[in-house]
Specification:
- The protein is mainly α.
- Helices cover 59% and strands 3% of the residues.
- It has two domains: 230 residues, no CATH class; 114 residues, no CATH class.
- The strands form two sheets. A two-stranded antiparallel ribbon has the order 1-2. Strands 3-4 form a two-stranded antiparallel sheet.
- The chain starts with a helix and ends with a strand.
């Protein structure tokens, strides 16, 4: 009993800490209010309690989506009499480019006995969170402030008027952090359906609109969770459709394709680098690929062959089509999945085919993945 109370207290404290850190992140991303100065990395005395409250315009809708996602898993597990913990939130201290959290997880404390129950628990989270994300995005796009709102964040843009985009986004200017958010199909649909076109922000500036930024991040996390790999939510869905053996094949192919795409155009192994740099960066990248592909569960020889084949293919495309670029941000995600999570899905005791209702939900999840996924979600110059 005491250990359960201690666990619940820990979860409550983690939630409070995450609310605090995401609120600070929201104040910085959405309103330009920095809690900690970049130098000397101390509290910024200009940061006020009102700035903190402004940050909650981001943190509250974002954590609402995240919480509904996790409780979708939790209540479905309870329905199927599978023991599960309440969500553990993961706060991240306020620092440059932090969103204040790495998400949240629940822990299953007993085995999921069947394919169908595993499918239900896996798909419930992203479906529930996605519904709330739709509401947040609709509200954000339908209540956009006038286009001049951006001048309250960047008063230096006012000199250029609403044509500021023609003047301020210089890729050769290294004095600013020029960040661009990518568009998913769903974001583009909301722009046309729910928003006044004259008020839709430039994708360089969307992070200054808290509901849009919260919804954008929710779509990114939802699409990542729905990737058909390992024990991600999408992995559970794929396992329900295909079973253990075929899931392993499809998940492996998808994982290799993800790593292949992510490494295309990687600057520090490109032919533009001097030879002395490539002598160091290429072996390091090869070791990185090997570490990622250990998650495939192959022999050492086959793992090395996969790493060499992917590297050779990437280099060939970079040589023939030097303007083709992937998204290197997926490499870290791929490393975590390949090295620590795994590509295959552990088998359940009872493998049974999905009924028609579950198959329909599975196809809906696939549609959500397609419309939510952004090949290059956050771009830096």
């Amino acid at each position: 009993m005491r250990s359960e109370q201690k666990r619940i207290l820990t979860q409550v404290l983690l939630f409070i800490a995450t609310l605090f850190t995401t609120t600070l992140a929201g104040a910085e991303w959405c309103h330009g209010k920095v809690f900690i100065s970049l130098f000397p990395f101390l509290y910024n005395p200009d940061f006020t309690f009102n700035d903190f409250l402004l940050g909650m315009q981001f943190s509250v809708p974002f954590l609402l989506i995240l919480t509904v996602h996790e409780f979708g898993h939790y209540f479905t597990a309870m329905y199927h009499k599978v023991k599960a913990s309440l969500p553990y939130y993961i706060p991240v201290p306020p620092m440059l480019l932090s969103i204040g959290t790495m998400g949240a997880v629940i822990r299953l404390r007993s085995k999921v006995p069947s394919t169908r129950k595993n499918f239900d628990i896996g798909i419930a989270g992203p479906l529930a969170g996605f519904i709330i994300a739709l509401g947040v995005l609709y509200y954000g796009f339908s209540t956009l402030p006038p286009a001049e709102h951006i001048f309250t964040i960047h008063p230096e843009y006012k000199q250029y008027g609403l044509n500021y985009a023609d003047h301020v986004y210089n890729p050769n200017d290294t004095t600013i952090i020029n960040i661009t958010l990518g568009k998913s199909l769903l974001l583009m649909a909301f722009e046309h359906v729910a928003a006044d076109p004259a008020r839709v922000p430039n994708m360089h500036e969307m992070m200054h609109y808290p509901f849009l930024f919260a919804g954008f991040l929710a779509l990114v996390f939802t699409s990542l969770n729905l990737l058909p790999i390992g024990q991600l939510d999408g992995g559970h869905v794929l396992y329900g459709f295909l079973g253990y053996k075929r899931h392993k094949i499809v998940a492996s192919v998808f994982f290799v394709a993800l790593i292949f795409y992510a490494g295309l155009g990687l600057e520090w192994i490109s032919l533009r680098q001097p030879a002395d740099v490539l002598m160091i960066s290429i072996p390091l990248y090869g070791l990185f690929l090997y570490a990622c592909f250990t998650g495939l569960g192959l022999s050492q020889r086959d793992t090395i062959m996969y790493a060499l084949a992917v590297f050779a293919g990437q280099y060939l495309i970079m040589f023939l089509f030097p303007t083709v670029n992937g998204y290197s941000g997926w490499l870290l995600f791929g490393f975590v999945i390949g090295r620590f999570v795994g590509i295959a899905h552990p088998p359940t005791e009872i493998e049974e085919p999905l009924d028609l209702k579950r198959q329909i939900l599975g196809w809906i999840a696939l549609v959500i993945l397609v419309v939510s996924f952004t090949p290059q979600p956050v771009n830096f110059p």
